[in-house]
Amino acid sequence: MPQSLDFDPIDRAGDLWQTHWPEEQPDVYAAMRAVTSIMRAHQILIGELDGMLRPLGITFSRYEALVLLVHSHDGALPLSKIGERLQVHATSVTNVIDRLEAAGLVRREPNPRDGRGTLAVITDDGRKVADEATIAFNDARFGMSALGLTQLDQLFRILRNLRVDAGDFAGVPST
User: How far apart are CA 15 and CA 22, in angstroms?
Assistant: First the structure.
């Protein structure tokens, strides 16, 4: 982990942004600071969460796929449904399922409802890994221990508005 700085580099970058583009509206500076903070938070969280998963031999994206399968009706989902739910491209799903299959955590089966489709089916080992990972994440509050319940709820609502506006899903923005 890099050494802590004695200043906030994102706030400093925002000040420099404002100095170099003084004609912009204040919301532009606030947006620059916010998006840069989100991107840095993403790096921090992925590093922490992937670090917790490393002993289990998976990454966060593989964990997400396993959890989808754990929560599915019979432990199986079409690859297309996994991509839809995780909101990722089919190529990414194939890569994730390839890795999980190589680790013995899922297996592929023909989809009986769609002769051309393939199901990903979670194995007993996959369920065990998903459970162990979930326990670790719950104990660590998914890397969000710096925030209280009210802040977490506010953050979720704020980011949900961004997702609705981007067309991530049909929904009503939160207030």
Answer: 10
- Residues facing residue 118 across a β-bridge: 110
φ and ψ at residue 150, rounded to 5 degrees: -60, -45
**pTM as predicted:** 0.84
| pLDDT surpasses 80 at 1 | no
Q: Which two tokens stand for residue 167?
A: 């067309």
Interval 54-90: pLDDT, tens: 999 999 999 999 999 999 989 999 999 999 999 888 8
Q: Measure Cα distances from 73 to 67, 68, 77, 88, 121 in Å.
A: 12, 10, 9, 21, 11
For residues 11 and 30, is the Cβ–Cβ distance under 8 A? no
Q: Which residue has the tokens 């079409």?
A: 78
Location of structure tokens 């031999």: 57
